[in-house]
Design a protein that fits this description.
CATH topology: TIM Barrel
Structural class: alpha/beta
Number of strands: 16
Radius of gyration: 20 Å
Low-confidence stretches: 1-54, 383-453
Strand content: 5-15%
Mean pLDDT: 78
Distance between the termini: 50 Å
Largest sheet: 8 strands, parallel
Oligomer: single chain
Helix content: 25-40%
Length: 453
Protein backbone atom coordinates (compact mmCIF):
# COMPACT_ATOMS: atom_id res chain seq x y z
CA UNK A 1 0.00 0.00 0.00
CA UNK A 2 2.45 2.57 -1.13
CA UNK A 3 1.50 6.02 0.01
CA UNK A 4 -0.71 4.83 2.86
CA UNK A 5 0.03 6.80 6.00
CA UNK A 6 0.47 4.94 9.30
CA UNK A 7 -1.85 5.99 12.11
CA UNK A 8 0.70 7.89 14.19
CA UNK A 9 3.59 9.67 12.53
CA UNK A 10 6.09 7.05 11.36
CA UNK A 11 4.78 4.32 13.66
CA UNK A 12 3.12 1.08 12.62
CA UNK A 13 0.19 -0.79 14.08
CA UNK A 14 0.25 -4.19 15.75
CA UNK A 15 -2.25 -5.71 13.35
CA UNK A 16 0.04 -6.75 10.51
CA UNK A 17 -0.29 -3.65 8.34
CA UNK A 18 2.20 -2.45 5.75
CA UNK A 19 4.62 0.42 5.88
CA UNK A 20 6.48 1.65 2.80
CA UNK A 21 5.93 -1.64 1.01
CA UNK A 22 7.19 -3.89 3.82
CA UNK A 23 4.77 -6.60 4.95
CA UNK A 24 4.90 -7.56 8.62
CA UNK A 25 4.65 -11.29 8.15
CA UNK A 26 6.89 -14.02 6.86
CA UNK A 27 7.39 -12.84 3.30
CA UNK A 28 10.61 -12.18 1.38
CA UNK A 29 10.67 -8.49 2.27
CA UNK A 30 10.37 -9.30 5.97
CA UNK A 31 13.26 -11.78 5.89
CA UNK A 32 15.47 -9.44 3.90
CA UNK A 33 14.86 -6.51 6.22
CA UNK A 34 15.30 -8.67 9.30
CA UNK A 35 18.65 -9.91 7.99
CA UNK A 36 19.84 -6.40 7.24
CA UNK A 37 18.82 -5.28 10.71
CA UNK A 38 20.67 -8.20 12.30
CA UNK A 39 23.82 -7.37 10.34
CA UNK A 40 23.61 -3.72 11.34
CA UNK A 41 23.30 -4.55 15.02
CA UNK A 42 26.04 -7.20 14.90
CA UNK A 43 28.51 -4.92 13.13
CA UNK A 44 27.71 -1.97 15.35
CA UNK A 45 26.36 0.01 12.40
CA UNK A 46 23.12 0.78 14.22
CA UNK A 47 23.61 2.80 17.38
CA UNK A 48 21.37 2.51 20.43
CA UNK A 49 19.05 5.34 19.51
CA UNK A 50 18.63 4.53 15.81
CA UNK A 51 18.25 0.84 16.61
CA UNK A 52 15.32 1.61 18.92
CA UNK A 53 13.63 3.86 16.36
CA UNK A 54 14.20 1.35 13.56
CA UNK A 55 12.74 -1.57 15.47
CA UNK A 56 9.83 0.56 16.68
CA UNK A 57 9.07 1.43 13.05
CA UNK A 58 9.17 -2.27 12.17
CA UNK A 59 6.85 -3.05 15.06
CA UNK A 60 9.29 -5.06 17.18
CA UNK A 61 9.52 -3.78 20.74
CA UNK A 62 11.69 -5.78 23.13
CA UNK A 63 12.10 -4.44 26.64
CA UNK A 64 12.73 -5.41 30.24
CA UNK A 65 11.64 -4.37 33.70
CA UNK A 66 14.44 -2.08 34.93
CA UNK A 67 15.20 -0.24 38.15
CA UNK A 68 14.23 3.36 38.82
CA UNK A 69 16.73 3.67 41.68
CA UNK A 70 18.12 7.20 41.80
CA UNK A 71 15.79 8.53 39.13
CA UNK A 72 13.28 7.11 36.69
CA UNK A 73 15.43 8.45 33.87
CA UNK A 74 18.11 5.93 34.90
CA UNK A 75 15.87 3.14 33.61
CA UNK A 76 15.83 4.78 30.17
CA UNK A 77 19.61 5.19 30.21
CA UNK A 78 20.08 1.55 31.06
CA UNK A 79 17.52 0.44 28.47
CA UNK A 80 19.42 2.13 25.66
CA UNK A 81 22.78 0.80 26.89
CA UNK A 82 21.32 -2.72 26.80
CA UNK A 83 19.98 -2.22 23.28
CA UNK A 84 16.31 -2.38 24.27
CA UNK A 85 13.47 -0.89 22.25
CA UNK A 86 11.27 -0.06 25.24
CA UNK A 87 11.13 -0.49 29.02
CA UNK A 88 8.89 -1.47 31.91
CA UNK A 89 9.18 0.28 35.29
CA UNK A 90 7.53 0.91 38.61
CA UNK A 91 6.66 4.60 38.99
CA UNK A 92 7.14 4.40 42.77
CA UNK A 93 8.39 2.03 45.43
CA UNK A 94 6.00 -0.84 44.81
CA UNK A 95 6.13 -2.01 48.44
CA UNK A 96 4.66 1.21 49.85
CA UNK A 97 1.06 2.39 49.95
CA UNK A 98 1.99 6.07 49.88
CA UNK A 99 4.46 7.87 47.62
CA UNK A 100 5.64 11.42 47.19
CA UNK A 101 4.29 13.23 44.12
CA UNK A 102 6.47 12.96 41.05
CA UNK A 103 9.11 15.69 40.86
CA UNK A 104 8.26 18.08 38.02
CA UNK A 105 11.88 18.33 36.94
CA UNK A 106 12.22 14.56 36.76
CA UNK A 107 9.02 14.34 34.73
CA UNK A 108 10.41 16.85 32.20
CA UNK A 109 13.68 14.92 31.97
CA UNK A 110 11.81 11.63 31.54
CA UNK A 111 9.60 12.95 28.75
CA UNK A 112 12.53 14.56 26.94
CA UNK A 113 14.60 11.37 27.10
CA UNK A 114 11.71 9.14 25.98
CA UNK A 115 11.34 11.28 22.86
CA UNK A 116 15.10 11.55 22.26
CA UNK A 117 15.64 7.80 22.21
CA UNK A 118 12.47 7.08 20.21
CA UNK A 119 10.58 5.14 22.89
CA UNK A 120 7.42 7.12 22.07
CA UNK A 121 6.93 5.49 18.66
CA UNK A 122 5.05 2.41 17.50
CA UNK A 123 3.28 0.04 19.83
CA UNK A 124 -0.43 -0.72 20.29
CA UNK A 125 -2.98 2.06 20.50
CA UNK A 126 -3.67 3.74 23.82
CA UNK A 127 -7.15 4.64 25.09
CA UNK A 128 -7.46 7.29 22.37
CA UNK A 129 -6.00 5.06 19.65
CA UNK A 130 -2.67 6.91 19.56
CA UNK A 131 0.51 4.85 19.15
CA UNK A 132 2.90 6.19 21.77
CA UNK A 133 5.45 3.38 22.04
CA UNK A 134 5.59 0.39 24.35
CA UNK A 135 6.73 1.90 27.66
CA UNK A 136 4.87 0.11 30.43
CA UNK A 137 4.37 0.57 34.16
CA UNK A 138 3.67 -2.29 36.53
CA UNK A 139 1.31 -1.44 39.37
CA UNK A 140 2.16 -2.22 42.99
CA UNK A 141 1.71 -5.78 44.21
CA UNK A 142 -0.01 -4.41 47.29
CA UNK A 143 -3.15 -3.72 45.26
CA UNK A 144 -6.00 -6.21 45.56
CA UNK A 145 -9.13 -4.86 43.92
CA UNK A 146 -10.91 -8.16 44.59
CA UNK A 147 -10.41 -7.95 48.36
CA UNK A 148 -13.59 -8.67 50.36
CA UNK A 149 -12.29 -6.58 53.29
CA UNK A 150 -13.44 -2.99 52.85
CA UNK A 151 -10.30 -1.38 54.28
CA UNK A 152 -7.90 -3.21 51.93
CA UNK A 153 -10.26 -2.71 49.00
CA UNK A 154 -10.50 1.04 49.63
CA UNK A 155 -6.72 1.38 50.00
CA UNK A 156 -6.27 -0.57 46.77
CA UNK A 157 -8.60 1.79 44.90
CA UNK A 158 -6.65 4.79 46.19
CA UNK A 159 -3.33 3.29 45.17
CA UNK A 160 -4.60 2.19 41.75
CA UNK A 161 -5.89 5.71 41.18
CA UNK A 162 -2.42 7.06 41.98
CA UNK A 163 -0.82 4.52 39.63
CA UNK A 164 -3.02 5.72 36.74
CA UNK A 165 -2.36 9.38 37.55
CA UNK A 166 1.42 8.84 37.62
CA UNK A 167 1.31 7.10 34.24
CA UNK A 168 -0.61 10.05 32.84
CA UNK A 169 2.03 12.49 34.09
CA UNK A 170 4.83 10.41 32.59
CA UNK A 171 2.85 9.73 29.38
CA UNK A 172 3.20 5.98 29.89
CA UNK A 173 0.53 4.35 27.71
CA UNK A 174 0.16 0.99 29.51
CA UNK A 175 -0.32 0.04 33.16
CA UNK A 176 -0.15 -3.68 34.00
CA UNK A 177 -1.62 -5.13 37.17
CA UNK A 178 -2.71 -8.49 38.56
CA UNK A 179 -6.50 -8.63 38.84
CA UNK A 180 -6.50 -9.70 42.48
CA UNK A 181 -7.47 -12.57 44.78
CA UNK A 182 -10.93 -13.12 46.23
CA UNK A 183 -9.51 -14.89 49.35
CA UNK A 184 -12.47 -15.62 51.65
CA UNK A 185 -15.25 -14.75 49.19
CA UNK A 186 -15.94 -16.33 45.79
CA UNK A 187 -14.85 -15.92 42.19
CA UNK A 188 -18.08 -14.18 41.22
CA UNK A 189 -17.85 -11.86 44.22
CA UNK A 190 -14.22 -11.09 43.41
CA UNK A 191 -14.97 -10.25 39.79
CA UNK A 192 -17.81 -7.95 40.83
CA UNK A 193 -15.58 -6.31 43.40
CA UNK A 194 -12.90 -5.52 40.79
CA UNK A 195 -15.45 -4.11 38.36
CA UNK A 196 -16.88 -1.87 41.08
CA UNK A 197 -13.38 -0.70 41.99
CA UNK A 198 -12.63 0.17 38.37
CA UNK A 199 -15.80 2.20 38.23
CA UNK A 200 -14.37 4.41 40.96
CA UNK A 201 -10.81 4.49 39.54
CA UNK A 202 -12.01 5.51 36.09
CA UNK A 203 -14.35 8.11 37.57
CA UNK A 204 -11.47 9.69 39.46
CA UNK A 205 -9.18 9.61 36.40
CA UNK A 206 -11.70 10.58 33.73
CA UNK A 207 -10.10 11.32 30.37
CA UNK A 208 -6.89 9.38 31.07
CA UNK A 209 -5.22 7.86 28.01
CA UNK A 210 -3.40 5.04 29.80
CA UNK A 211 -4.75 1.53 29.21
CA UNK A 212 -5.07 -0.63 32.32
CA UNK A 213 -3.96 -4.13 31.39
CA UNK A 214 -5.34 -7.14 33.25
CA UNK A 215 -2.45 -9.58 33.57
CA UNK A 216 -3.03 -13.30 33.33
CA UNK A 217 -1.84 -15.12 36.44
CA UNK A 218 -0.76 -18.69 37.25
CA UNK A 219 -4.18 -19.24 38.84
CA UNK A 220 -2.92 -20.39 42.23
CA UNK A 221 -5.45 -20.51 45.06
CA UNK A 222 -7.96 -17.66 44.82
CA UNK A 223 -5.97 -15.68 42.25
CA UNK A 224 -8.18 -14.36 39.47
CA UNK A 225 -6.93 -14.49 35.89
CA UNK A 226 -5.45 -17.97 35.58
CA UNK A 227 -8.12 -18.88 33.04
CA UNK A 228 -8.76 -16.85 29.90
CA UNK A 229 -12.49 -17.07 30.62
CA UNK A 230 -11.95 -15.17 33.88
CA UNK A 231 -10.03 -12.39 32.11
CA UNK A 232 -12.75 -12.11 29.46
CA UNK A 233 -15.55 -11.98 32.05
CA UNK A 234 -13.69 -9.39 34.06
CA UNK A 235 -13.10 -7.08 31.12
CA UNK A 236 -16.78 -7.28 30.16
CA UNK A 237 -17.87 -6.51 33.71
CA UNK A 238 -15.54 -3.50 33.85
CA UNK A 239 -16.85 -2.23 30.52
CA UNK A 240 -20.44 -2.64 31.70
CA UNK A 241 -19.60 -0.72 34.86
CA UNK A 242 -17.55 2.09 33.30
CA UNK A 243 -18.64 2.33 29.66
CA UNK A 244 -14.97 2.79 28.70
CA UNK A 245 -13.78 -0.25 26.72
CA UNK A 246 -10.74 1.52 25.30
CA UNK A 247 -9.25 1.97 28.77
CA UNK A 248 -9.08 -1.74 29.62
CA UNK A 249 -6.90 -4.34 27.91
CA UNK A 250 -4.81 -7.42 28.65
CA UNK A 251 -1.26 -8.48 29.44
CA UNK A 252 -0.05 -12.05 28.98
CA UNK A 253 3.00 -13.60 30.61
CA UNK A 254 4.47 -16.71 28.98
CA UNK A 255 5.49 -18.15 32.36
CA UNK A 256 2.05 -17.50 33.84
CA UNK A 257 0.28 -18.99 30.82
CA UNK A 258 2.39 -22.15 30.96
CA UNK A 259 2.03 -22.59 34.72
CA UNK A 260 -1.72 -21.94 34.49
CA UNK A 261 -2.09 -24.87 32.07
CA UNK A 262 -1.68 -23.29 28.61
CA UNK A 263 1.22 -25.24 27.12
CA UNK A 264 3.88 -22.92 25.66
CA UNK A 265 6.67 -25.49 25.26
CA UNK A 266 6.26 -26.09 21.52
CA UNK A 267 5.32 -23.99 18.53
CA UNK A 268 2.16 -26.02 17.96
CA UNK A 269 0.93 -25.91 21.57
CA UNK A 270 1.83 -22.22 21.95
CA UNK A 271 -0.14 -21.36 18.82
CA UNK A 272 -3.08 -23.36 20.16
CA UNK A 273 -2.86 -21.40 23.42
CA UNK A 274 -2.76 -18.05 21.61
CA UNK A 275 -5.67 -19.13 19.40
CA UNK A 276 -7.69 -19.98 22.51
CA UNK A 277 -6.90 -16.58 23.98
CA UNK A 278 -7.96 -14.92 20.73
CA UNK A 279 -11.28 -16.77 20.71
CA UNK A 280 -11.94 -16.06 24.38
CA UNK A 281 -10.50 -12.60 24.98
CA UNK A 282 -9.33 -11.20 21.64
CA UNK A 283 -5.72 -10.58 20.60
CA UNK A 284 -6.80 -7.13 19.47
CA UNK A 285 -7.02 -6.13 23.14
CA UNK A 286 -3.59 -7.54 24.10
CA UNK A 287 -1.40 -4.53 24.86
CA UNK A 288 1.63 -6.02 26.67
CA UNK A 289 3.54 -9.31 26.78
CA UNK A 290 5.90 -10.55 29.47
CA UNK A 291 8.49 -12.96 28.08
CA UNK A 292 9.78 -15.36 30.73
CA UNK A 293 10.67 -19.03 30.92
CA UNK A 294 9.03 -21.11 33.63
CA UNK A 295 10.54 -23.20 36.39
CA UNK A 296 7.24 -24.99 36.88
CA UNK A 297 5.87 -27.49 34.40
CA UNK A 298 2.66 -26.86 32.49
CA UNK A 299 -0.29 -26.66 34.86
CA UNK A 300 1.88 -26.48 38.01
CA UNK A 301 0.51 -23.06 39.12
CA UNK A 302 4.07 -22.20 40.16
CA UNK A 303 5.12 -18.61 39.47
CA UNK A 304 8.90 -18.81 39.10
CA UNK A 305 10.46 -16.93 36.21
CA UNK A 306 13.62 -18.28 34.57
CA UNK A 307 15.96 -17.11 31.84
CA UNK A 308 14.88 -17.82 28.26
CA UNK A 309 15.69 -21.42 27.35
CA UNK A 310 16.46 -22.53 30.90
CA UNK A 311 12.97 -23.50 32.00
CA UNK A 312 10.20 -25.82 30.93
CA UNK A 313 9.13 -23.63 27.98
CA UNK A 314 12.42 -23.23 26.08
CA UNK A 315 14.28 -26.09 27.73
CA UNK A 316 15.37 -28.37 29.06
CA UNK A 317 18.77 -27.08 28.04
CA UNK A 318 21.36 -29.60 26.92
CA UNK A 319 24.49 -30.40 28.92
CA UNK A 320 26.34 -27.76 26.91
CA UNK A 321 23.78 -25.03 27.54
CA UNK A 322 20.83 -23.42 25.80
CA UNK A 323 20.67 -24.19 22.09
CA UNK A 324 19.14 -22.26 19.21
CA UNK A 325 17.71 -25.47 17.79
CA UNK A 326 15.72 -26.18 20.95
CA UNK A 327 14.47 -22.61 21.26
CA UNK A 328 13.27 -22.70 17.65
CA UNK A 329 10.97 -25.59 18.56
CA UNK A 330 9.57 -23.78 21.58
CA UNK A 331 6.68 -21.39 22.03
CA UNK A 332 9.12 -18.48 22.21
CA UNK A 333 9.57 -18.80 18.44
CA UNK A 334 5.80 -18.64 18.02
CA UNK A 335 5.48 -15.52 20.14
CA UNK A 336 8.28 -13.45 18.58
CA UNK A 337 7.33 -14.38 15.00
CA UNK A 338 3.55 -14.02 15.20
CA UNK A 339 2.71 -11.02 12.97
CA UNK A 340 -0.31 -10.16 15.12
CA UNK A 341 2.01 -9.71 18.10
CA UNK A 342 4.66 -7.71 16.23
CA UNK A 343 3.76 -4.34 17.71
CA UNK A 344 3.02 -5.59 21.23
CA UNK A 345 5.82 -4.63 23.66
CA UNK A 346 7.57 -7.75 24.97
CA UNK A 347 9.19 -7.21 28.36
CA UNK A 348 11.55 -9.55 30.17
CA UNK A 349 10.89 -10.14 33.85
CA UNK A 350 13.68 -12.66 34.28
CA UNK A 351 15.99 -12.74 37.35
CA UNK A 352 18.34 -9.77 37.40
CA UNK A 353 21.45 -11.54 38.63
CA UNK A 354 24.90 -10.72 37.34
CA UNK A 355 25.64 -12.38 34.02
CA UNK A 356 28.79 -14.19 32.94
CA UNK A 357 31.88 -11.97 32.53
CA UNK A 358 31.28 -9.32 29.88
CA UNK A 359 27.51 -9.77 29.65
CA UNK A 360 24.25 -8.76 31.29
CA UNK A 361 21.44 -11.28 31.56
CA UNK A 362 19.02 -8.99 29.73
CA UNK A 363 21.46 -8.85 26.81
CA UNK A 364 21.72 -12.65 26.70
CA UNK A 365 17.96 -13.24 26.96
CA UNK A 366 17.18 -10.64 24.29
CA UNK A 367 19.82 -12.05 21.96
CA UNK A 368 18.25 -15.48 22.33
CA UNK A 369 14.81 -14.10 21.48
CA UNK A 370 15.98 -11.97 18.57
CA UNK A 371 17.86 -14.97 17.16
CA UNK A 372 14.50 -16.67 16.63
CA UNK A 373 13.37 -13.98 14.21
CA UNK A 374 13.93 -14.24 10.44
CA UNK A 375 17.52 -13.27 9.68
CA UNK A 376 18.43 -13.17 13.36
CA UNK A 377 20.71 -16.20 13.53
CA UNK A 378 23.77 -13.98 13.72
CA UNK A 379 22.48 -12.43 16.95
CA UNK A 380 22.81 -15.68 18.93
CA UNK A 381 25.02 -15.04 22.01
CA UNK A 382 28.66 -15.65 21.18
CA UNK A 383 30.47 -18.70 22.53
CA UNK A 384 32.36 -16.74 25.19
CA UNK A 385 29.03 -15.47 26.55
CA UNK A 386 27.33 -18.85 26.65
CA UNK A 387 26.03 -19.86 30.05
CA UNK A 388 26.24 -23.18 31.80
CA UNK A 389 22.96 -24.90 32.54
CA UNK A 390 21.43 -23.70 35.81
CA UNK A 391 23.71 -20.70 36.20
CA UNK A 392 20.71 -18.42 36.02
CA UNK A 393 19.25 -19.75 39.25
CA UNK A 394 21.89 -18.66 41.73
CA UNK A 395 24.69 -16.18 42.28
CA UNK A 396 27.16 -15.90 39.42
CA UNK A 397 30.25 -13.83 38.74
CA UNK A 398 30.09 -10.07 38.58
CA UNK A 399 29.22 -8.73 35.15
CA UNK A 400 31.77 -6.57 33.33
CA UNK A 401 29.13 -5.13 31.04
CA UNK A 402 29.02 -1.36 30.75
CA UNK A 403 25.31 -1.40 31.53
CA UNK A 404 24.58 -1.47 35.26
CA UNK A 405 22.81 -4.77 35.88
CA UNK A 406 19.68 -4.17 37.91
CA UNK A 407 18.79 -6.65 40.59
CA UNK A 408 15.27 -7.88 40.52
CA UNK A 409 14.23 -11.30 41.76
CA UNK A 410 11.17 -13.06 42.96
CA UNK A 411 9.73 -13.01 46.45
CA UNK A 412 6.82 -15.30 47.10
CA UNK A 413 3.41 -15.48 48.58
CA UNK A 414 1.93 -18.86 49.24
CA UNK A 415 -1.25 -20.04 47.67
CA UNK A 416 -3.14 -23.24 47.28
CA UNK A 417 -3.21 -24.69 43.76
CA UNK A 418 -6.45 -24.72 41.87
CA UNK A 419 -7.79 -27.44 39.61
CA UNK A 420 -6.04 -27.97 36.29
CA UNK A 421 -8.33 -28.60 33.36
CA UNK A 422 -7.46 -31.36 30.95
CA UNK A 423 -7.36 -30.93 27.20
CA UNK A 424 -5.07 -30.36 24.25
CA UNK A 425 -4.00 -26.96 25.49
CA UNK A 426 -4.26 -27.22 29.25
CA UNK A 427 -1.77 -29.52 30.95
CA UNK A 428 -2.44 -32.18 33.57
CA UNK A 429 0.63 -31.77 35.74
CA UNK A 430 0.58 -32.37 39.48
CA UNK A 431 -0.31 -29.48 41.70
CA UNK A 432 2.69 -27.80 43.23
CA UNK A 433 3.05 -27.84 47.00
CA UNK A 434 4.56 -24.36 46.86
CA UNK A 435 2.23 -22.57 44.56
CA UNK A 436 3.11 -18.92 44.81
CA UNK A 437 3.21 -15.72 42.87
CA UNK A 438 6.52 -13.94 42.33
CA UNK A 439 7.06 -10.29 43.12
CA UNK A 440 9.85 -8.44 41.34
CA UNK A 441 12.14 -6.53 43.66
CA UNK A 442 14.85 -4.11 42.79
CA UNK A 443 17.99 -4.52 44.88
CA UNK A 444 19.97 -7.25 46.66
CA UNK A 445 21.00 -6.91 50.27
CA UNK A 446 24.61 -6.54 51.30
CA UNK A 447 24.79 -10.23 52.09
CA UNK A 448 23.97 -11.17 48.54
CA UNK A 449 20.46 -12.28 49.42
CA UNK A 450 17.63 -10.54 47.66
CA UNK A 451 15.63 -8.09 49.68
CA UNK A 452 12.50 -6.08 48.97
CA UNK A 453 12.75 -2.46 48.03
Amino acid sequence: MTGQQPPHRDAVTQTGGRYEGVVFGFGREFRHLGGALAQGVRRGMIRARSRSVTRAMLGFLFGSHLSIAGSMVNALTEATSLGLDTVQVFTKNQQQWKAKPLDSGMVRDWLAEVRRIGFDKGGPGDALGDHRGGVTSHASYLINLAAPADELWSKSIDLMTDEVARCEQLEIPFLVHHPGAYTTSSLDAGLARIAEAYGEVFRRTKGARVVSCLEGTVGAGSQIGGKFEELARLRELIIDRTGEPARIGYCLDTCHMHAAGYDMSSQVSAQASLDEFDRTCGLAFLKVLHINDSKGVVGSHLDRHMHVGEGTIGGPASSTGVTLERLRRSGFATVVNNPRLAGVPKHLETPKEDGPPGSAWDTINLARLRSLMPGGEGLWPSEQNSVEVGSGTGRVQESKAKARTVRKTNSTRAGKAGTVEKGTVRGTAKKSTKNAESKPTERPGASGKKRKR
